[in-house]
Design goal:
The chain is α/β, with parallel strands linked by helices and 204 residues long. It has a single domain, classed as Rossmann fold, CATH 3.40.50. It contains six helices and nine strands. β4, α5 and β5 form a beta-alpha-beta unit. The longest helix is centred in the middle third of the chain and has 13 residues. It is globular.
Length: 204
């Protein structure tokens, strides 16, 4: 998976590639789908949500440019797979999931795998996690119409946020950097995510 789907397609961040070699992706999907876990495609995880294809996880992780001392906020825990990859890269990962069954399942699996630098909570991810702010990095694993204001407020100066922006059907993978309190934006190709639901995104 790592060699064919990531490295061959231009993902060169050695730490990201190593993290994705270590995290057992098949454990984050339903048992009936495990033989497809390492294919280059998303898979359903219940609650009308998906686990992103490996390439997208690798690309977002690479664009985030996480260093070992960073504290990362993840919006949309989902299966917990991206959370575990971030845990391999960062000092601390704070992850928010709005759907209780997914959040509880992801937390249990992450604990079983032995990660001690991850905190998962249930809540509205568009509001961020004010008690833990500021964050060096923020990753949003759902597509919204714009950058949620609370997330940008909770991003540290010189911090980076990676998120899909667009309509409910298609988005563009976007990097937002905070420079002297202002947004600097770059775009990195088309993508399609489940919609970001919450006060500062799409309503249910």
């Amino acid at each position: 998976m790592v060699d064919e789907q990531l490295a061959r397609r231009g993902i060169t961040d050695a730490r990201v590639l190593e993290a994705m070699r270590k995290v057992p992706r098949h454990l984050f999907v339903e048992e009936a789908l495990r033989e497809r876990a390492y294919g280059d495609h998303p898979l359903p995880i219940g609650e009308e949500q998906t686990i992103s294809q490996p390439y997208i996880v690798g690309l977002m992780s690479s664009l985030l440019e996480v260093r070992g001392e960073h504290k990362v906020l993840e919006v949309g825990t989902g299966s917990g797979y991206q959370t575990a990859v971030l845990a391999e890269l960062a000092r601390r990962v704070c992850s928010i999931e709005r759907l209780p069954r997914l959040g509880q399942r992801a937390r249990a699996l992450i604990e079983r795998l032995g990660y001690q630098n991850v905190w998962v909570r249930l809540g509205n991810g568009t509001l961020g996690w004010p008690d833990e702010a500021p964050f060096d990095r923020i990753l949003v694993a759902a597509g919204g119409p714009g950058v949620p204001a609370p997330l940008f407020e909770q991003l540290a100066e010189s911090g980076r946020m990676v998120l899909p922006l667009g309509d409910e059907e298609a988005q563009v993978l976007t990097v937002v950097t905070k420079v002297r309190g202002q947004m600097v934006v770059s775009r990195h190709g088309d993508c399609r995510f489940v919609k970001l639901v919450g006060k500062f995104a799409w309503e249910t």
